[in-house]
Design brief:
The chain is of the alpha/beta class and 271 residues long. It has one domain: Alpha/Beta hydrolase fold, catalytic domain (Rossmann fold), CATH 3.40.50.1820. It has eight helices and eight strands, in the order E-E-E-H-E-H-H-E-H-E-H-H-E-H-E-H. Strand 7, helix 7 and strand 8 form a beta-alpha-beta unit. It is globular, with a radius of gyration of 17 Å.
Length: 271
Amino acid sequence: MTTEIEGFSCAPFTYEGKTRDVYRKGQGPAVIVMTEIPGITPAVIRFAERVVADGFTVFMPHFFGEPGKAFSPTYSMSQIARVCISKEFHVLAARGSSPVTHWLRALCRHAHEECKGPGVGAIGMCMTGNFALSLMVDPSVMAPVLSQPSLPFGVSSAHRAGIHLSDEDLVTVKARCAAGIKVLGMRFTHDVLVPAERFDTLRRELGSGFEAIEIDSAPGNPWNIPRIAHSVVAHDFVDRDGHPTKLALERVLSFFREKLIQPAQSDLNRS
């Protein structure tokens, strides 16, 4: 049974025999919002609403949890356990994408065909964070955002530096970056789920194609951000002018505008 989210429509999307509900709201170019653990919580919905208010159509697939249910540590741990045994999420793959990304690429193509424009944006969070990088293999994805990308789990030095992407897909991603596509990544500096080594790998592999936002969460930081802070634009977001998380949200929205709205306006002006 489909759970309703106020203001959002919901429809199934099927690819290669796999069907999931996708929540949709807004007008304008498409942005795929891939939710974090434990799922489509009120904080994630508020983020999606901000994207809609900025002139985009949000497509928010339901991967896990109960849509609309509030975050709690117990709820979160139960969903982590489910994801860890899922065949669609390879939580320890340092050099390989989760199989669910194939379904997501098809959703990107569908959203682009429906909403038009230069392409689609995509933001992944936590366990879906690196998925935005995998989606760049599809030409429709023009504005990928990695928010606290947590896969693979950092059980070794190789895993801490891993970016959850196959060598073959990395070649494609690097070529797209060289052609002008940018990748935006965000993390808190003391987030154990998103090691600094992971962003070091992204800088080394993507060069100027990677833009990093790293928010100070060390003890004694000026904004009293807790050391355990993890969720940049959802659960640890602070809606206060000048706060680093609000500045990060503003950059995400401007990134989407730069890549998905302004090119179309430029084409219109030239015609």
